[in-house]
Amino acid sequence: MVVYIWSLNISSKDTSALNQSGNVSSGDLLEPHDSPPGLSRTGHTVTAVCLGAILLLGCLNNLFVLLVFARFRSLWTPINLILLNISVSDILVCLFGTPFSFASSLYGKWLLGHHGCKWYGFANSLFGIVSLMSLSILSYERYAALLRATKADVSDFRRAWLCVAGSWLYSLLWTLPPFLGWSNYGPEGPGTTCSVQWHLRSTSSISYVMCLFIFCLLLPLVLMIFCYGKILLLIKGVTKINLLTAQRRENHILLMVVTMVSCYLLCWMPYGVVALLATFGRTGLITPVTSIVPSVLAKSSTVVNPVIYVLFNNQFYRCFVAFLKCQGEPSVHGQNPQHSSKEDPHVFRPCDGASIHRSAEGPQKKEQHSLSLVVHYTP
């Protein structure tokens, strides 16, 4: 009996060492050899609290968006379908990603094994890139709407469905290669989350990290800045025509652009920078704290996105308020209830507007040019 207790104590003390040797012998790279020591118990607890808050708020916020979208038919427009795609990808992260990192942080170690780690890395990368691409596509669609001289057809969803399908296919294009030998999915930071193996120094891994940074993080950012910058320039042109109302609109658009781009940079750029430092910096440069903070910030986008894109979308905001008050379908334009819900919600009256079309009233009034502002844009 004494011998049995002694052997039990030894095995419990050396469990981590035995598991590590077993993983290495079987090719299960759950603990990189050059990884720094893990977080303290306090660090794991703080991380778990942050991830728990992100999990709760992310699920609630995106669930509200989905319920509001399902409740009000006036929201069923092509451009809002892209907004819905963002919420779907974010809530999938909350359901299939954050709970596992939350539970692992509570226990201080990864709980799902080698294959679970690969699935977690793939799923989070897939849904994250879908969200990023959808944000950039949304900015382009908003900019393109300003350039259209005719009212958008809200019954034509083909373009929107192509954009949604394209975001998922594009994401799959960049998240499947690690399963095919181009880089690899594995543990990151203190070992309670999994992602692309940034620390690997092979040629294939370095090339993959660079492509991922350029085409899945930097490219969407450049597209967002370009499109929203163009929108601001168009709005500035309107201020010369109707100073008061257009100035308000310009301030609203400026606030929206600064908030969206700033939140994008805050949530995703630290993660990209840390990944580059882990790839090209010296071994051990990225500590567990340095690696876990950007990972938590990236997951916080699931909370931030629905807040930004609902609060800055007048149509969604009115429907959201009506949903909370258990009211019926709000008017599309928020003021005149006579408007039909089938009317394009992205076409506003002159006081809301941005795209400018000059037209003559007729041959007999050729010298009197009327100025009409037609807007195909909802911020």
TrEMBL record:
<feature type="transmembrane region" description="Helical">
    <location>
        <begin position="206"/>
        <end position="233"/>
    </location>
</feature>
<feature type="transmembrane region" description="Helical">
    <location>
        <begin position="253"/>
        <end position="280"/>
    </location>
</feature>
<dbReference type="GO" id="GO:0007602">
    <property type="term" value="P:phototransduction"/>
</dbReference>
<dbReference type="GO" id="GO:0008020">
    <property type="term" value="F:G protein-coupled photoreceptor activity"/>
</dbReference>
<feature type="region of interest" description="Disordered">
    <location>
        <begin position="358"/>
        <end position="379"/>
    </location>
</feature>
<dbReference type="InterPro" id="IPR017452">
    <property type="entry name" value="GPCR_Rhodpsn_7TM"/>
</dbReference>
<dbReference type="InterPro" id="IPR002962">
    <property type="entry name" value="Peropsin"/>
</dbReference>
<feature type="transmembrane region" description="Helical">
    <location>
        <begin position="46"/>
        <end position="70"/>
    </location>
</feature>
<keyword id="KW-0807">Transducer</keyword>
<dbReference type="InterPro" id="IPR000276">
    <property type="entry name" value="GPCR_Rhodpsn"/>
</dbReference>
<feature type="transmembrane region" description="Helical">
    <location>
        <begin position="292"/>
        <end position="312"/>
    </location>
</feature>
<feature type="compositionally biased region" description="Basic and acidic residues">
    <location>
        <begin position="358"/>
        <end position="369"/>
    </location>
</feature>
<dbReference type="InterPro" id="IPR050125">
    <property type="entry name" value="GPCR_opsins"/>
</dbReference>
<comment type="similarity">
    <text>Belongs to the G-protein coupled receptor 1 family.</text>
</comment>
<feature type="transmembrane region" description="Helical">
    <location>
        <begin position="119"/>
        <end position="140"/>
    </location>
</feature>
<keyword id="KW-0812">Transmembrane</keyword>
<keyword id="KW-0157">Chromophore</keyword>
<keyword id="KW-0716">Sensory transduction</keyword>
<feature type="transmembrane region" description="Helical">
    <location>
        <begin position="160"/>
        <end position="180"/>
    </location>
</feature>
<keyword id="KW-0600">Photoreceptor protein</keyword>
<keyword id="KW-0325">Glycoprotein</keyword>
<protein>
    <submittedName>
        <fullName>Teleost multiple tissue opsin 3a</fullName>
    </submittedName>
</protein>
<keyword id="KW-1133">Transmembrane helix</keyword>
<keyword id="KW-0675">Receptor</keyword>
<keyword id="KW-0681">Retinal protein</keyword>
<dbReference type="InterPro" id="IPR027430">
    <property type="entry name" value="Retinal_BS"/>
</dbReference>
<feature type="transmembrane region" description="Helical">
    <location>
        <begin position="82"/>
        <end position="107"/>
    </location>
</feature>
<dbReference type="GO" id="GO:0005886">
    <property type="term" value="C:plasma membrane"/>
</dbReference>
<dbReference type="GO" id="GO:0007186">
    <property type="term" value="P:G protein-coupled receptor signaling pathway"/>
</dbReference>
<dbReference type="GO" id="GO:0071482">
    <property type="term" value="P:cellular response to light stimulus"/>
</dbReference>
<keyword id="KW-0297">G-protein coupled receptor</keyword>
<keyword id="KW-0472">Membrane</keyword>
<feature type="domain" description="G-protein coupled receptors family 1 profile">
    <location>
        <begin position="61"/>
        <end position="309"/>
    </location>
</feature>
<keyword id="KW-1015">Disulfide bond</keyword>
<dbReference type="GO" id="GO:0001750">
    <property type="term" value="C:photoreceptor outer segment"/>
</dbReference>
<dbReference type="Pfam" id="PF00001">
    <property type="entry name" value="7tm_1"/>
</dbReference>
<dbReference type="GO" id="GO:0007601">
    <property type="term" value="P:visual perception"/>
</dbReference>
